[in-house]
Design goal:
By secondary structure, the chain is an alpha/beta fold. The protein contains 16 helices and 8 strands.
Amino acid sequence: MTGGQIAIPGILKVGKGVLGEIGTFLKGSGFTQAVIYFGNGLTEMFGRGVMESLKQEGVTVLEYRELDSVQMDDIIELAFSIDAKAQVIMGIGGGKVIDAAKYAAYLRKLPFFSVPTSSSSDGFSSASASLIVNGRRTSVPARMAYGILVDTDVIKSAPVKFIYSGIGDMVAKITALYDWLYEDQNGYAEMNDFAVMIAKKAVNSFVRTPFETIQDDLFLRELLDSLAMSGIANEIAGGSSPTSGSEHLISHSLDKMLETPQLHGIQVGIATYIMSLVQEHRYQRVNTIFTDTGFWDYVETLKLDVSDYEKAIDMAPSIKPHRHTYLHEEQYREKAKRILREDPVMKRIFHLE
Ligand SMILES: [Zn+2]
């Protein structure tokens, strides 16, 4: 049980046009020497606006480049090539560049600004980074962002699948929390009350947000705020249990098995629905949000193979052998596989009839 010091970002800005104000946020925090990493191909899209904003505020950019690697060795090399004058590191882009920049900042003990350009997962607000170590994707400790800046106009302009991925990763907190409760009740883990409350409030506030389309400003802000809150829940808990349970194990298994897995939150979302039925907990709510947002309609177009999901369910416990989620018990793995074949929504998305 942790009750000690936790790190919480000092700056969290989610809204329209935030990217054009980056200079103001850096300067306002007292940073005048920055290193900026962009995701692959993003300099062309956002480079100019960002640079102008920094110039306007008198922030010197010591280095800016695109990054496309999450190899631990590459990031270590990168981190130690950073100019000694650097006061802050900023990562602008998708999950990869954010993980890389986050880890470089951790190695150099520099504050990190997380600037996600898509809403595909809660990684932008987590203290850990997913890197490739000795050929395997591994979650390594990094550092909590000093600042999180999200431009909802940018999020909106990204392909809609990224929004669906964010929705899936957010709704997953429902089953993740229930797995954690299950572990707590059976003596395998101890829940942290405050982390539970934060994660619960985050997901509930999100699923109750009214919307016309998933590109509504309010809906996107709720989604990003809630994903950011989830990262804080993990920080409080000192691990990922508040936000990642059996549904994430299924997705991690798929990542291992498949040559071209789907986006993280897409797989996680499908698995969340399956697990909510296994747990017999809030499955109607999960189905409603996936129906109303068009998540299911999107998933139906993906030509997913039901046998991949069957194998992923079987593989799930081996991904985190030290945990004890519902899927760590055979009876629930069997139940999950029955749901895959029998549930009407599953039949529809896997084209089983
Ligand atoms: Zn996730």
